[in-house]
Amino acid sequence: MAITPEKKFNTQKYISVLFFTLLIFGSGFFLSDYTTKKRIAQLNDLQQNLRTDILSLETQFSILNQAPCANLNESTLTNELYSISQKLTSVGTTLGEDDGNFLELKKYYSILEIKHWLLLQRAAKECKLPLAFIIYFYEDSKNCPQCEDQGYILTYFREKYPFLRIYSFDYNLDLAAIKTLKSVFRLQDETPIMVINSDVYCGYKSKDELETIMEKYVKLESLEDKTTTSTAATSASSKKK
Amino acid sequence: MIDLIEILTYTGTFAALYFGILVFITLAENRHCLYEKTPLLNLPSVSIILPCFNEENNVEDSLISLVNLDYPQDKLEIIAVDDGSHDNTLDKMLAFQLKNPTIKVLHKENGGKHTALNLAIPQATGEIIGTIDADCLVEPNALKQMLKYFHDPKVMAVVSTIKVRQPRTLMDGIQYAEFIVSGFIKKIISFLGGLTVTPGPLSLFRQETFTIVGPYRQAHLTEDLEMALRLQSQNMKIACAWEAAVYTKGKPDLKSLSQQRLRWQRGFLLNLKDYSPLLNFRAHGNLSFLLIYSLAGIFLSVALILLSLFQITKGVLGHLNQAWLIKFDFLPFFSFKNFNLDWIKLTPLAVMGFLALALILGFFFLGRKYTFEKGKIDEKIFFWILLYPFLNAFWWILTTASVVSGREMKWHGNNPGKKI
């Protein structure tokens, strides 16, 4: 029997199907690319906001010649920083950790982190804020298999102790400010590294180990308990002014 | 590994999208002939064969649904064949025959479903011969709806739309949705001359079909699939009737469902091997394209699911490790400030995932619309989307292993009417 008309291959039809498939597929890529670009733009805006806020606070320091404690709303600055960090992670996942754009954003973020740290250190001292600081250096999983675990433990600490400020830096990021930090603290190439009150701790520290170390510098329990009151107090005082 | 997943996902989504658009374009092209509108002026005589093995719980319901068909009694011949059942199937048939003397009851030694059908076919007097499984119930108007398609003299067989009764269990839900989608696709594929099964639940044939192509064969326990391939190899036309519904019982558990699917998929591969000339593009056009496409699709879906499983396992282990690191103290992570929508990343992969999901849901809802399915949509149905891809890949892996090892399968208790 001859081939039935239904079975006859209509090349034109299959080519139009291919055309529509390419169109929809391409639109999918375009949409994805568009949202990635939008995300990067958002990240740029956020970084710009934080930069302005930090500059504004630094200027207030200079004008008053002391820390403007009454006006200080450090939780806003910190939330801005964390928000950038989250967006940066998301961009890193989308673009890839080695992407040139991502590395540039990461460098800028690292500088903002250092400025934030310097500013808050001064504010904590002068305004007697119950803040504690950890500077954390990590590498990629190839060079530092335990860095991911250490990072997760530090995230847990940050969530548990809201007045603990953690600044994380890529140990190998080609940035003069990071190199300076490394030389100031005389760091050896043994990540993960944590710097707490100028003391350097090399190697992985478990949750319990880190809690014991932290207890040397600050009463963790009191950090945890005072957190909400302190945030509210600073926010309230800023509103009054 | 991630790169491989991306490549496979893009290829898989592209292939699925291509198929989806082919389906939608074919649907649009044939929008005026989705249902057979030619009135049935001359009712042909019809013989319906019901092969049974150990079907004492189903045979009566099935026979009732057959005698309740909207068709003149003098033109409808029902032949129930007991294939050497060990239970009371024969007694039930004979008891039913007492109340409905027009029904013919045949009995033979057990030999398999194809032998039961082949015993009845030569004795069938109808111009049209139908086969039905013992666990199926036919809608009263189904027969007339299917017969309309024979007004085209080239149509040698007509297949019905198989549905699973309203789901009560998770397994029912999975099968319900699956049958709705496959019912939708089958019709579209029939427009491309690509049907590869004349399903046991209810198919009709012109009487001369068997004279031309011969009787049923054992065919790796998928005689309905082999018959369709045989018709296709002779370029005989098979039509599909969306408007004719037959209800089958869903498999009650994962084991029996897996056994059934293993049998079907194994039958598909082995019968396709036996009918490999069907892959000849010049001789079979659309059909060969669809067959090659499904073979490639099987490979892609299995590879993708395996890689996804690898990723999921890796993720779960990673989370377990994290839980261990913080001594399962998750409390600090549950705060409102942690809630944000940043986790929704519109990566190309995510976009492709949404596209594939939209396609699958589109098939499901169109399937419901065109097959007049009125059953309630409940949450069980959506487990189909979650679980089916994994189950299907698992079955194909088992099927491939079974085909490669050359291990023979058996009917459950050599049961011809009861599908395993």
Automatic annotation (TrEMBL), chain A:
<keyword id="KW-0812">Transmembrane</keyword>
<feature type="transmembrane region" description="Helical">
    <location>
        <begin position="14"/>
        <end position="32"/>
    </location>
</feature>
<protein>
    <recommendedName>
        <fullName>Thioredoxin-like fold domain-containing protein</fullName>
    </recommendedName>
</protein>
<keyword id="KW-1133">Transmembrane helix</keyword>
<keyword id="KW-0472">Membrane</keyword>
TrEMBL record, chain B:
<dbReference type="Pfam" id="PF00535">
    <property type="entry name" value="Glycos_transf_2"/>
</dbReference>
<dbReference type="InterPro" id="IPR029044">
    <property type="entry name" value="Nucleotide-diphossugar_trans"/>
</dbReference>
<dbReference type="InterPro" id="IPR001173">
    <property type="entry name" value="Glyco_trans_2-like"/>
</dbReference>
<feature type="transmembrane region" description="Helical">
    <location>
        <begin position="346"/>
        <end position="366"/>
    </location>
</feature>
<comment type="similarity">
    <text>Belongs to the glycosyltransferase 2 family.</text>
</comment>
<keyword id="KW-0812">Transmembrane</keyword>
<keyword id="KW-0472">Membrane</keyword>
<feature type="domain" description="Glycosyltransferase 2-like">
    <location>
        <begin position="47"/>
        <end position="208"/>
    </location>
</feature>
<keyword id="KW-1133">Transmembrane helix</keyword>
<protein>
    <recommendedName>
        <fullName>Glycosyltransferase 2-like domain-containing protein</fullName>
    </recommendedName>
</protein>
<feature type="transmembrane region" description="Helical">
    <location>
        <begin position="7"/>
        <end position="28"/>
    </location>
</feature>
<keyword id="KW-0328">Glycosyltransferase</keyword>
<feature type="transmembrane region" description="Helical">
    <location>
        <begin position="381"/>
        <end position="404"/>
    </location>
</feature>
<keyword id="KW-0808">Transferase</keyword>
<dbReference type="GO" id="GO:0016757">
    <property type="term" value="F:glycosyltransferase activity"/>
</dbReference>
<feature type="transmembrane region" description="Helical">
    <location>
        <begin position="287"/>
        <end position="310"/>
    </location>
</feature>
